[in-house]
Specification:
Layout: H1 3-18, E1 51-62, E2 65-73, E3 83-89, E4 96-102, E5 113-120, E6 126-133, E7 139-146, E8 157-159, E9 179-180, E10 186-187, E11 193-201, E12 204-212, E13 218-220, E14 226-228, E15 235-243, E16 259-267, E17 270-279, E18 284-287, E19 306-313, E20 318-325, H2 332-338, E21 340-341, E22 343-344, E23 348-352, E24 359-363, E25 371-377, E26 380-382, E27 386-389, E28 397-405, E29 413-414, H3 422-428, E30 437-446, E31 454-462, E32 468-475, E33 492-497, E34 506-513, E35 516-521, E36 526-531, E37 544-549, E38 555-565
Parallel strand pairs: 1-21, 29-31
Antiparallel strand pairs: 1-2, 2-3, 3-4, 5-6, 6-7, 7-8, 9-11, 10-11, 11-12, 12-13, 12-14, 15-16, 16-17, 17-18, 19-20, 20-22, 20-23, 23-24, 25-38, 26-38, 27-37, 28-34, 28-38, 30-31, 30-37, 31-32, 32-33, 34-35, 35-36
GO molecular function: hydrolase activity, acting on glycosyl bonds
InterPro entries: ConA-like_dom_sf, Fructan_Metab_Enzymes, Glyco_hydro_32, Glyco_hydro_32_AS, Glyco_hydro_32_C, Glyco_hydro_32_N, Glyco_hydro_beta-prop_sf
Family: Belongs to the glycosyl hydrolase 32 family.
């Protein structure tokens, strides 16, 4: 009998003896909060009908159906009472809710069924590894499998009688408060499974490595897969291969020539990743560039985007990324009034850039079927100080693509030697600060009188080596006139865009959906996501969208297409 079959045998024996006591049907809470308005609920981003959601948990495709699991509070719009929410889709755009996959029902997960991943075992059998919190607040790792493998919707899951599979103890000396979020497992050439659990020891971020022959008995490796001194707790790790010769995604166990690996960790509200080489014989991951290690180099997103999880879509040979976008309201009572909190970013296809140095990200193609009524502008020039409205588009729910170029870069401002943090530079040089080459870009979720707007823009600087530096910013400082202002996080975000403006156009794609603005610069080299809450001056029919140039030099727009977006079916 194979290792995967032994998992199901143990579970089925447990069911035959004990019944289905650990499978509980979900009953919606009777505490339904009626919200006075839903102007900030999104039209085509995933969020449950009500209450709190956060981390994505191991999305997967099974029998042609996409499954999205997520951290969910079924009783309130605040964090707590965490279970695994579950929705299904045939296109990653329209979603149907299913009963929660995992509820708090056992001593090892009584205080919550927290983040984890799904893995397809032999024969394509899915299995969930997840973190539970027990009565003593220890974080332990557990297994669950479907009750009925013939059910394409996987509506019922059974927890393993062998849980917890891994727990902190006096022998392994693991800190039980910082031991969570198992990755999707991969099958090594030696025939044994591997997976990683996030950890912190003495302030050092660690990806603890575990091995198993049967997916039940896990042995900790002597050395971690990866670690970094003084980097803090590594949450929600992810580890997967990428092709060096193709944009196609790779199944998680793929190794060999023309393959690099990506290690990602979530820390300090940011998702960092590094690219390197995995040695399956020594079970170690080595970044290609230590200066671009976790916390030092690339991020998936330079705004609000956290606890992300990727999966391999075998039906289209893509690797797809989900990420949690939290609220930007500091007053927790606001969430309860609205009756919901948190949503997911648009699923992104990710692949390795031809340079091998970074990943590229782009909204999945399926989202484009929501586009309608395109507005197309031919090549135009934005004169210094100009602001021009993009008309004919539902500016509350839109998708816009455009490219900028400059005939000369003579007026580029000097990049100061002490500017080491692009976010700080964007804060100093916001959209309202006049410059040389920029700021130029978009003003979205804007009021007619420009009292409110969110700005996404570029600035071009001249470096100290006769090079040019491109800064991409998302400025929320004037996104809302709501009071008190301190209740709203109106941070300005920024990233350096690895584009040569002498040779390349500056492309920008922005998805706007009521209270979320997702922007992709340089064809996916840098992404910035923002949550904003304009007043009645800039919601629904009062919302406007503009292109602008607040620099002293004109810039060209060689491509501008904007679409209104239909509302997805997300029940």
């Amino acid at each position: 009998m194979g290792y995967a079959s032994s998992v199901w045998l143990g579970v089925l024996v447990f069911i035959s003896i004990h019944g289905y006591g650990n499978i509980r049907l979900f009953e919606a809470s009777s505490r339904v909060i009626q919200t006075p308005d839903q102007i900030y609920r999104t039209g085509y981003h995933f969020q449950p009908a009500k209450y709190w959601m956060n981390d994505p948990n191991g999305p997967k495709i099974y029998m042609g159906i996409y499954h999205f699991f997520y951290q969910y509070n079924p009783y309130d719009a605040q964090a707590g009472n965490i279970v695994w929410g579950h929705s299904t889709s045939t296109d990653l755009v329209n979603w149907t809710p299913q009963p929660p996959a995992l509820l708090r029902s056992e001593p090892y997960d009584f205080k919550g069924c927290f983040s984890g991943s799904t893995t397809l075992l032999s024969g394509g059998k899915p299995a969930i590894l997840y973190t539970g919190v027990d009565f003593s607040d220890n974080q332990v790792q557990n297994l669950a499998v479907p009750k009925n493998l013939a059910d394409p919707y996987l509506t019922e899951w059974v927890k393993s009688p062998y849980n917890p599979l891994i727990a902190p103890n006096s022998v392994n000396k693991i800190d039980g408060q910082n031991f969570r979020d198992p990755t999707t497992a991969w099958l090594n050439p030696d025939g044994n499974w591997r997976m990683v659990v996030g950890n912190q020891q003495n302030g050092n971020g660690i990806g603890l490595l575990y091995r198993s022959k049967n997916f039940i008995d896990w042995i900790q490796a002597e050395n971690p897969l990866h670690f970094m001194n003084n980097s803090g707790m590594w949450e929600c790790p992810d580890f997967f291969p990428v092709s060096t010769i193709s944009q196609n995604g790779l199944e998680t166990s793929t190794m060999g020539p023309n393959v690099k690996h990506v290690f990602k960790a979530s820390k300090a509200s940011t998702d960092f990743y590094t690219i390197g080489t995995y040695n399956p014989n020594k079970d170690i991951f080595i970044p290609d560039n230590k200066s671009l290690d976790i916390g030092l180099g690339f991020r998936y997103d330079y705004g609000k985007f956290y606890a992300s999880k990727s999966f391999f879509d075998s039906s289209t040979s893509r690797r797809i990324l989900f990420g949690w976008i939290n609220e930007s309201v500091n007053n927790l009572e606001t969430n309860s009034i609205r009756g919901w909190a948190g949503l997911q970013g648009i699923p992104r296809r990710i692949w390795l850039h031809k340079s091998g140095n970074q990943l590229l990200q782009w909204p999945i193609a399926e989202i484009e079927k929501l586009r309608m009524n395109p507005v197309i502008e031919d090549t135009t020039v934005l004169m210094p100080g100009s602001v021009r409205e993009i008309s004919g588009v539902n500016a509350t729910q839109a998708d816009i693509e455009m490219s900028f170029s400059a005939k000369t870069l003579e007026k580029a401002e000097k990049w100061e030697a002490n500017w080491t943090n692009p976010q700080q530079v964007c804060s100093i040089k916001g959209a309202s600060v006049k410059g040389g080459l920029g700021p130029f870009g978009l003003l979205v979720l804007a009021s007619k009188d420009m009292q409110e707007y969110t700005a996404i823009f570029f600035r071009i600087f001249k470096g100290n080596n006769n090079n040019f530096i491109v800064l991409m910013c998302s400025d929320q400082t004037r996104s809302s006139l709501h009071l008190p202002s301190s209740d709203y996080d109106k941070t300005t975000y920024g990233a350096l865009l690895n584009v040569d403006p002498l040779q390349e156009k500056l492309s920008l794609r922005t998805l706007i959906d009521h209270s979320i603005v997702e922007s992709f610069g340089g064809e996916g080299k840098a992404c910035i996501t923002a949550r904003v809450y304009p007043t009645n001056l800039a919601v629904d029919g009062a919302t406007h969208m503009y292109v602008f140039n607040n620099g002293s030099q004109s810039v060209g727009i060689s491509k501008l297409t904007a679409w209104s977006m239909k509302t997805a079916q997300i029940n």
